[in-house]
Amino acid sequence: MVFLIVLIWPGYTMVQKRQFEEHVDYLRSIGEPVSIAGISDAIESNPEQNFAETSIVRFFRGLEIEESEKSWNTPVNFDLKTLHGYTNPTEKRSVSYIFTPPVQAHFPDITPEEAREKFEDFYTKHSAAISALEESVRLPDCRFPIDLNDEMISPLFEYTNPFMKFSHLVSTRGRHHLEKGNITEAAYDAETIILLSERIFADHFILPQIVGYIFLQQGISIIQQGLAQSLWSNDQMRTFDELLSRFKLQTNLLKAIRDERVGWFEFGYLDKEGRDKVRKSGLDLNGNFHPLIPSGWYYDNFTKASELLQLGILSDASGNRAINHLPASSTIERLMTALNSEHHTRIRYRLAANCIPNYGVLFDRALRTETYIHHARIAIALEKFRKNKGTFPTDVSQISPPLPVEITTDPFSKSPMRYKLLASDSYEIYSVGANKVDDGGQIRWRLNDGDWVWRLSLPEDFDYSTYR
């Protein structure tokens, strides 16, 4: 039996490698990227940008951590109760709170006044680190890569990653500045978080895109709160609009998907020395070939996973399938069913199945955040109109110069975003959302329920229990 396996093993690998190469050749022929040369060469020629030595190390000097680049994975002792316990009084809550449950309900033993006092003490302890972060995100061409190793992924989603914690701290400080009337400082905090998210989006992979969505929403929430109180100057609003206009989230996500696939291809072709080069670039997603597993198994899985991506997401070279939020094709549904239909198939394509995350959810997150950006830009234009005319327009089309069509169009209905004036000298903007049903501006927690709404304040009768 062992002798038979030894005979079959090389042949199986040769067949699967040949199929893998043919698939890569096909993708090359239709213009899909299949080489990491540009990425890895750029990193090798600019080693100071690898792990952002000029940014991340500078940031951690503010934390007074003396370790080298791995120190950025070191958890920092944060008092999350104090950080999250801080909030505005109920009557001043902005719609940014629809992204979290009511803060005070989770911290009944702390009042807003106590939280403000503790926040001041808490912030003072970390002011040096925050100053370093503010400086770093404003350096030209700096990057804040999100590492893909196991030490990083778990802490990231448990809010033990320093960037995540400090962005929450800066966001809270920005709200605090607004309450105290420190408008210039609040605008600076909003810019800091937005710039941080921009640097994170510049990474090559899918995970940083998800992290960037979280940071970007924090920055926009400060802008939203300032708009609710008519606090921003025209210059500040112009800066916010310029910053937000630079984000193309769905395009970034498509590029991240392609870049990760390139990592599979390079890994499949290279010897150990070449794989070390890929690993240095950050694109090694799978580790070394295991000596007891035929290399053909890896080639077979790489090919299958790439076919799924191409047929289900990237089949339109311009990305229109994903950008227009169309449902997955029947082809990819059939292939995914085949991957999970039989026990031996599930085992055989375990790696391929793991390489295919729930892309529907990823594009939902990208589209939701991009819609939030568009709502923010519309809201900035509405506030400029109000400052000039004394009241909000009855229709967005009254704004001059006209807003770009791409930000005023509902990605689901393909018609203009819903806009209506409210009795409280305010307004609401909304998309019909993923269910493609106009629910009249109904706010729900789940992405596929209710509408995607921008308001300057929540309704007085808003029911958090139905929201959650």
Annotate the secondary structure layout:
Layout lengths: L1 H28 L7 H9 L7 H10 L17 H6 L17 H4 L5 H14 L1 H10 L13 H8 L4 H19 L2 H19 L4 H23 L5 H11 L4 H21 L2 H10 L13 H18 L7 H4 L6 H10 L3 H6 L1 H6 L3 H31 L15 H4 L9 E5 L3 E6 L20 E4 L8 H4 L1
How would you describe what is shown here?
By secondary structure, the protein is mainly alpha-helical. The protein has a domain at 32-246. The protein has helices at 2-29, 37-45, 53-62, 80-85, 103-106, 112-125, 127-136, 150-157, 162-180, 183-201, 206-228, 234-244, 249-269, 272-281, 295-312, 320-323, 330-339, 343-348, 350-355, 359-389, 405-408, 464-467, and strands spanning 418-422, 426-431, 452-455. The protein is globular, with a radius of gyration of 25 Å.
Strand order in the largest sheet: 1-2-3
Number of helices: 22
Helix-residue proportion: 55-70%
Q: What string gives the helices and strands in order?
A: HHHHHHHHHHHHHHHHHHHHHEEEH
The main β sheet shows up as: 3 strands, antiparallel
Q: Roughly what fraction of the amino acids lie in strands?
A: under 5%
Principal-axes geometry comes out as: globular
Ranges where pLDDT stays below 50 over 5 or more residues in a row are 38-103, 147-160, 278-288
Which value, in Å, is the CA radius of gyration? 25 Å
What is the mean pLDDT? 70
Distance from first to last alpha carbon:
58 Å
Compute the number of strand runs: 3
Question: Can you give me a brief rundown of this structure?
Answer:
The chain is mainly alpha-helical. 59% of the residues lie in helices and 3% in strands.
